[in-house]
Design brief:
The protein is an alpha+beta fold. The protein has helices spanning 18-27, 56-67; strands at residues 3-12, 32-40, 45-55, 72-78.
Length: 85
C-alpha cells in the first residue's frame, strides 16, 4: 500500500486523556514526521498538529483512536502529492 502524507489536527479538552494520547503517538512513532503541541491555558485546551507519512489505513486508524479518547477531537487533512516523486 502506498504511503500518504497527512496532518492530524488534535484538540484536547480533557487533560486526563493526555497520557493515553502520548502512548498512542509513541506506538505510531515510526510514521510520525513531527508534531507540535500548544497548550492554551486561558481556555484549558491543548492544540496539537501531527505530521505523518504512512499508509492510509494507518493514518485513519491513528486518527480514529485519537478521536475516541474522552475529551479529544481530531481531523485529518491529506496532501495531494504526485506518486512519481
Amino acid at each position: 500500500m502506498e504511503n500518504r502524507v497527512a496532518l492530524i489536527g488534535v484538540v484536547v479538552e480533557n487533560l486526563d486523556s493526555v497520557a493515553e494520547l502520548n502512548a498512542l503517538l509513541h506506538d505510531y512513532a515510526d510514521f510520525i514526521i513531527g508534531r507540535m503541541g500548544i497548550p492554551y491555558k486561558k481556555r484549558s485546551v491543548s492544540v496539537i498538529s501531527i505530521a505523518i507519512d504512512a499508509p492510509n489505513d494507518t493514518i485513519s486508524t491513528l486518527a480514529g483512536k485519537i478521536g475516541n479518547l474522552p475529551g479529544v477531537s481530531s481531523k485529518t487533512v491529506y496532501a495531494k502529492l504526485d506518486s512519481d516523486k
